[in-house]
Amino acid sequence: MKKVNEILNLNLISFEKKFSELLNNENTILKHVLKYILKTKGKKMRPMFVFLSAKIAGEINESTYRTAAMIELLHTATLVHDDVVDDSIQRRSFFSINALWKNKITVLVGDYLLAKGLLLSIENEDFELLKITSNAVKEMSEGELLQIEKARKLDITEAIYFEIIRSKTASLLASACSAGAYSTSKNPEVKETFRQFGENIGISFQIKDDLLDYGHQTTGKPSGGDIKEKKMTLPLIYTLQNAPASIKKEIIYIVKNENTNKLKVAQVMSYVQEYGGIAYAEKAMELYKNKALALLFTFPPSEARDAMEELVNFTINRKK
């Protein structure tokens, strides 16, 4: 991401310093866990979306840095909690927090990160930021609960799938873009455009994540993991809608009863390829990406806009 790095290099260096200082804590357990979190953090994708949205809408300021920190704290808190919910032992090829410190400490650390973010916005009277991010927390929780509810019966329709990923994944990216833009523009219309932009990218991003589970070995999670966890993603939903009744029955039985059998999981993945689930999901991913870019192109040409386009393409073309 050459353009992104050129434009945001100094901003991201400054952000890393500010974020590390923000997580400094003298509590022995917290100190060790937070240090581990900083060590294992990912590519800083969401702060990049915050800063680029802010640059397109105006001039980056201290409020923008607080926005990026708030989004990163919220994102990290949800990942920490998700690992408990999913009983995961790995995150980005590192041991998860709960694998090292068990569930009780993990939940409390997630709560701490969330509270830290809320206090950051309150102490600086960033009340619009607080509103945006609090709404994201609500939507992410609702999406997770809806997914759990529907996973028990495996009756997720395409419409429900999109509602789940809009809430679970896209809401946070929508918050990152809208809050970033608002931090420099204070313009409600600009904020809303960037919210829609982020939501469309978030949906496209999640479909890409679902596709990576069908065939790539460098995703950071085992191929076929969604099937093993009984997660009904778009490729599988489409396949169940379009496969012959006998194949549909077989797929449902495997997902419900044989989802830990590698050969059976591989058979389901083969059916998804054969009956068009992969191609359909790829088409949907491109559709939402193009919706996002159409919104982005309503803003005047600039280096920041070009960098945002590059970031969008990176998120969709990534291999893991």
Provide structural commentary.
The structure is a single chain. This protein is mostly helical. The chain has one domain: Farnesyl Diphosphate Synthase (Orthogonal Bundle), CATH 1.10.600.10. The chain contains 14 helices and 2 strands; from the N terminus they run ααααββαααααααααα. A two-stranded antiparallel ribbon has the order 1-2. A hairpin with a 2-residue loop joins strand 1 and strand 2. The longest helix has 28 residues. It is globular and about 60 Å long.
Set down the secondary structure blueprint.
Elements: H1 2-22, H2 28-40, H3 45-57, H4 62-85, E1 90-91, E2 94-95, H5 97-123, H6 127-151, H7 158-185, H8 188-212, H9 225-228, H10 234-242, H11 245-257, H12 262-274, H13 277-296, H14 303-317
Antiparallel strand pairs: 1-2
Helix pairs in contact: 1-3, 1-14, 3-4, 3-7, 3-14, 4-5, 4-7, 6-7, 7-8, 8-13, 8-14, 10-11, 10-12, 10-13, 11-12, 13-14
